[in-house]
Amino acid sequence: QPTVQCSIGITQFTIYYDIEGDVSSRQEAGRADPNAETFTIDGSLLEPGTTYNIAVTVTTDQEGALSEGRTVTATNPTGSPGSSVAIIIVAVIVVIIVLILLFLIVIVVRKRKMEDQPDPIDNQPLNDLGKQSGPSGNTYHSSGAVNTALNVTKAKKTKESSAASSSVIDVGGIYGNLEPPSPIRVAEFPEYIISNIDKVEHEFGLLEGSQQKHPWTVANQENNRKKNRFRNMYPYDHCRVVLPKLPGDHHSDYYNASFILNERDVRAYIASQGPNKASVDDFWRLIWEQNVQTIVMLANLYEEAKERCLQYWPKEENEIQSFGYIDVTWTKTQHFADYVIRTLSVDRGGTIREVKQLHFKEWPDKDIPENAMCLVEFARHCKLIHFKKQTPLLIHC
Question: Which of 150, 220, 285, 308 could form a disulfide with 154, with the two C-beta atoms 3.0–4.6 Å apart?
């Protein structure tokens, strides 16, 4: 927008403009008071990108001529392509933000509606395990009893499998004689136990499985019974850890341990009993044959003055103890608040391997730890040590 400085003696300014090359388009743009120091011409009517001739006439108290024309290119900011693009971008961003907000609002509203709807099972009391209302007519008795009725399908399966495992009765699962109860909210569980302690104890007694789900014929053989610490905890034949037989000993392939599959059906874990005098050598054979690098011990050697696990490592650090043809050296100890980590060097015929033993010391016999955080920290340390190892993690109590 052109600015013209006033001079003394001028009585009036008159401003004209026309499109270059078209004198007939000349228009008056405005007049200015000569007493003002400056004045501005409104260029809003100018077309963007067009060249105009600007003429200023000066009226004085004496005669004069028109000033020479000055060429000016005027640009209208409001109509520039750049500003239009900016407006479009802002509009698109605003629309996207609005759509995102609407999407979030819909999710929140649906979630609240789902939370507000009463769970149909919340108001249902737990089924009394002392009553059986199922259509099969099955009943149950105290520990040692079996179902009095089986459907035709299960009866046929039992007959077909009787030849392979005559000592096992298929009753549809170890707790097939019990009707599953309705769930209890976690927040209500402590109050439920306190209010129904007699009923809970009765139900727990009913869950003492009187029937095994799979055969355990090897564990129950006379030559292997002495290797079992408990008479009611045997590994099933199909998942037990089978050891290579020693020369001249047909029963040397047994130790009380079972494979446990992970989510990819890989034998990632071995659940084992703590060794006794009859099985401690086999325990180390198992560790060597399965290339176990991490042992998790969830028991103490003695509980209530009774031996719960035979010590299967040397009595003192840096000592060597032999278990059959395997030599074990206790090389290092790390003490923590609730557990101990021992490093064991295992030597068989000059081939040496390192085994880490994580011994959790605060698991009381026939009870659970008072503070769960200590167990959580222990589990984290186990994962850290066993991380990326491709061999089974052995756990025993």
Answer: 150
Q: What is the pTM of this model?
A: 0.52
Which segments of 162-275 does DSSP mark as H helices, in order?
A: 189-195, 197-206, 222-225
**What whole-number distance in Å separates Cα of residue 289 and Cα of residue 305?**
33
Report how far residue 326's alpha carbon sits from residue 324's, in angstroms, rounded to the nearest whole number: 6
| 137 φ/ψ sector (left φ>0, alpha ψ -120 to 50, else beta) | left
Angle 223-225-231 from CA coordinates, rounded to 5°: 165
For domain 215-396, which CATH number applies: 3.90.190.10, 3.40.190.10, 1.10.3720.10, 3.20.20.70? 3.90.190.10
Residue 168 structure tokens: 């096992």
Rounded CA-CA distance 67/58 in Å is 8
- Residue 351's pLDDT band (boundaries 50, 70, 90)? very high
DSSP helix/strand/coil, 321: strand
Residue of 215 and 60 predicted with greater confidence: 215
pLDDT of residue 360: 96
Q: Which CATH number fits domain 10-79: 3.40.710, 2.60.120, 3.30.70, 2.60.40?
A: 2.60.40
